[in-house]
Structures are given as C-alpha cells and as structure tokens.
Amino acid sequence: MATIVASIEYLAHEILLCLPVKSVLRFKCVSKQWLALISEPKFCHLHTLSLYRSSRVFPSFLFLAHDFSSTCEVILIKTNDVSDSSNFRNVEVPIGTVIQSCNGLILIKNITFDLSDVEYFICNPTTNKSVPVIFPSKHFRNSLESLFICFDPLKSPHYKLVSIGYKYYTSECYFTNMILSKFNPSTEYVCNIYSSETDSWVEPGFTFTASDAEAPHQRNAVYLNGVLYCYMFRLEKFCCFDFETQSFKTCPMPLMMENRRVSYFGESGGFLLFVLPSSLWIEILKLNVENFEFSLVKKWESTVYEEICSFYHVFLPRE
Amino acid sequence: MAKTPEPKRTISLKPCDGDVIEVSPMIAKQMQTIQSFIEDDSFIATTTIIPLPNVTAFQLSKIIDYLNYHSNSKAVADNVKESTKKFDEEFLKELEHDKLKELLHAANYLNVKEVLDFLCQAVADLIQDKSVKFVRKFFGVVNDYSVEEEEDIRRTHAWAFEGVEED
User: Fold this and answer.
1) CA B104 to CA B119: how far, in whole Å?
2) Residue among A22, A26, A32 minimizing CB distance to B132
3) In this predicted structure, what is the pLDDT of residue A183?
4) At B74, is the pLDDT very low, low, confident or very high (cuts 50, 70, 90)?
5) Are A184 and A213 a contacting pair, CB within 8 Å?
6) Predicted confidence (pLDDT) at residue A83 exceeds the cutoff of 50
7) Which candidate from A23, A30, A86 shows the least CB-CB separation from B141?
8) Phi and psi dihedrals of B124, rounded to 5?
C-alpha cells in the first residue's frame, strides 16, 4: 500500500510538471497534500523551468495598477498562444503603481497618502501573492531614488533587488530630496543589493556620482541574461550593472544612434529594444546583448502624433 | 574451431496474466527494473524468465510497442514527426481513462522513462481543463478540505476556475 501511495505522489508530481499554470493553480484545491506539493518552492521552480523548456513563456499581459486601487487591470496581448491564461484578469495587488516587471514578478511602489512614506511590494500576479520589501532602516527606505527587481528563473529561483539612494539624505520628506537633487548636478548616490536567497541587504554598498544628476531609473531598466541594463534618457546613453564587480558601466552606442532621441527602451524576445522617433521616420532597433550587435527591426514614416508619442510597447516573438 | 551455438538474444518476460513475451536486449535496457535483473549475477539469459507480477500482458505489449516504434523511427529523419504524432494519437485512442492510469503505473513499475514521460504528458493533456472533482476521482484522492478552506483557495485563484470543462 505504501509503495502505491508513494508512486501516486511521484506520478502526480510528474504530471503536474506537464500542466500549464492555470491548471496547477486550480488543482491546489484537490487535497491538502496536492496543495503542499504545488506550493513547494522546488516544485514551483521546476515547473517554471519546464514552461521555459517547452517554450510556453512569452509576453502575455500588460498590468495597469492604478494608484489607490487594490486590483490591477490586466490587458491581454494577443499572441499566438494564450490558451492557458486567457481568463487571467483583475489580479489583486497591493495599492500602488507598477514600476517594473521582470520575468513574471512585478515591483509596486506606493507613496502614502500624506506623502511622508514610501512602500514597495514584490508581487507575483499569477499566484496572487505579494511580499513587502523590508529595508534595513526607515532612513534607507526614504532615501531611495530607484529600486530594481532582477529575476530570471532560468538563472536562479531567487530574485535580487538593486537600490539606488541619495547619499546625503537628510529630510524626512521624500519629495524635498527628489527636487533638491535635480538642482545638484553631481549628486552622490549609494547602491545596495538585496538577495531573496539570504533575505538580506549587502551594506554599506558603494557610492557613485551620476553625471547630470540622472541616476539609473527603474522605468528605463531591463534585466536580461543576468545583467541589469538602464537607459538614461537625459544623457542619451545606457549603462549596465555588473553584479560581480558591483559597478555601473557605460555601454557603447552605435553611430546610427548618436544624437538620436530614444522614446522607448525595453526588452522582448531576448533582445533589448529601442524606439527612435524623428520627424521623418520611426525606427525600432534591437540589440543582441551576446555580441552587442544592433539591427533594424522596423522602420516607417512617422506622423506628427507618433513623433511626440512615447507610449510604445514593443513585443518580439522569442526565437 | 568448433562453432558454438548462437547465444539466445532475447530477454524473457512473464506478465501476471499471460504467456512469456520475448524482447530484444535493446528494448529491455530501457526498462530500468528489467535492467537491474539482467545485471544481477544470478541472471542467465538463456534460462531465466523474469516474472512481472504487477504488469499485465496487455500493458507489457503496449509498452514494448511504444518503445519499438520510437526506437525505429529515430533512425529515419524525414516525415518522422508527422507519423510519430499519428502513432502516438492511435496509441492513446485505444486507452480508456482506467487503462491509461494502469498503464502509467505499469510504466512506473518498469521504470521506463520514455513511456513514463509520454504518459504523464498524456494524462496532463487529459486533465488540463478538467474540474477539481474530476481530478480527485481520477487519482482516487479524498478531499480533506473544509468548505471554508476550499472556498478560500477558489477565491484567491478565481481566474483558474474559469473555462473548466463539464465532467
């Protein structure tokens, strides 16, 4: 009898690994044993990897978390295969704004009603789970300028956070600091890293000066192949964060991009994407980060509306 | 030089409900449970018949069919995908739910990875859009949740309970 039970558990495990996320979530309801099996971190990671292996991972949704709302509007992106999650909608998320999305996890920022405090959450909309980001101190949290989430299940089941904060933060008000820094061209920043594996922040971190007071910002950040890339719109260049040496490096830009305005920087299908508008053309360029080669994805004549519009989202099918 | 008689090349397997079935060593090798028999010192290929008390003749021949087809089809490159797909579909068509489940257990007992992977995917495809009730019945799992506990999970993952097939 014991062997039959053990073999059923083993077989259930193997079968669950073959199922899409939607079915796995539903079958949490089968029994407490199945719930335990499905909730096991090791199972979750294996399941995610099996989805990647069978090429069932692709950009599927845009999340619009409105300020002061506890549910998140979900906009479906029409791709070839949306069969297993087409009903995925109205995810409950902590109140705030989605500031970054990274391979299935989203980072939410909320400024409290009296503007005195900022809180951050990491949310997995698929499982409807979220955890608050715990900082070493209130001072640390309030001095933050940017926070990045770095998660790639193909590399590790754990995520990392990279924080950039003002070095000489004094005031209690979040906005005062933000405004002050804009008038100081050589603001010094401190960078710290958190790892979910050890559940701890690395302190004291390292200090750097951002020229033109433009520190890397999460709205323009992309985590790809274990490297965090940030585009600096004011400086018209982009840099990458190296986790090994814990430093920001400026990446080379091709000639065709010199003196061109970039209106969108993002990632899709394993490439970094740039949208370059001008009065004549709109161009989408992709960058292969393996060999740092740029290539043209699409080019078309621009309209006045398109030239000024910066709300692009670009999706490429994964090859 | 005296000619020794050709050694017997097949492995004899005795299912619980039928005659001995002979399989080639190539096929036997893929069944881990048989392989450990063969590697045992007391195993003599010419005389030993391996008893399989947990496997029926039907199940054994299905598994051998699958392995035979797939080891042969690997050699030819063209049109393989199409015909393999067809074979797999036909293979499953003959299996009702109970038979599929029993075959899965047999493949698990014989520890034959290729068939096990294939059947796990087949069961996954079968239950993918099915209700929780169907899955409980299929696996013989007893519901040990209270009404409130179950309701709680359904609420948290409401979207996962939409678009489910009728039982």
Assistant:
1) 6
2) A26
3) 60
4) low
5) yes
6) no
7) A30
8) -60, -45
Q: Where are the alpha helices (DSSP H) in B94-146?
A: 97-110, 113-127, 132-139
**Residue B28 belongs to what H/E stretch?**
helix B25-29
Distance CA(A189)–CA(B79), nearest Å, equals: 61
The alpha-carbon radius of gyration of chain A (Å, integer) is 21
Reported in sequence order, the residue ranges of A39-159 that DSSP labels E, i.e. its strands, are: 61-65, 71-76, 91-92, 97-102, 105-111, 118-124, 129-132, 144-150
Burial profile B83-106: b = 16 or more Cβ within 10 angstroms, e = fewer = eeeeebeebeeebeeeebbbbbbb
Residue among B135, B145, B160 whose CB faces A32 most closely? B145
Q: Using the predicted structure, report yes or no on whether residue B119 has a pLDDT greater than 90.
A: yes
Q: How far apart are CA B97 and CA B140, in angstroms?
A: 13
d(CA A95, CA A72): 9
Q: How far apart are CA A140 and CA A117, in angstroms?
A: 12
Mean pLDDT of A110-122: 80
What are the chain B neighbours of A7 within 8 Å (beta carbons)? 105, 108-109
Count CB atoms within 10 A of the CB of residue A230.
25
pTM: 0.73
A128 with B156: Cβ contact below 8 A: yes
Q: Residue A212: how many CB atoms within 10 A of its CB?
A: 12
- Can you list the domains of chain B with their CATH numbers? 11-123 (3.30.710.10), 129-167 (no CATH)
| Token reading at A87 | 């009903």
Cα distance between residue B165 and residue B148, in whole Å? 24
pLDDT confidence of A222, banded at 50, 70, 90?
Answer: confident
Half-sphere exposure of residue B34: CA atoms within 13 angstroms, side-chain side? 31
Q: Residue with structure tokens 């990491």?
A: A122
Most confident of A73-77, A107-111, A292-296, B122-126: B122-126
Strands of the A188-195 sheet, one edge to the other? A144-150, A160-166, A188-195, A200-209
> Amino acid identity of B75?
A
How, if at all, do strands B49-52 and B11-15 pair? parallel
Reported ipTM: the value is 0.87
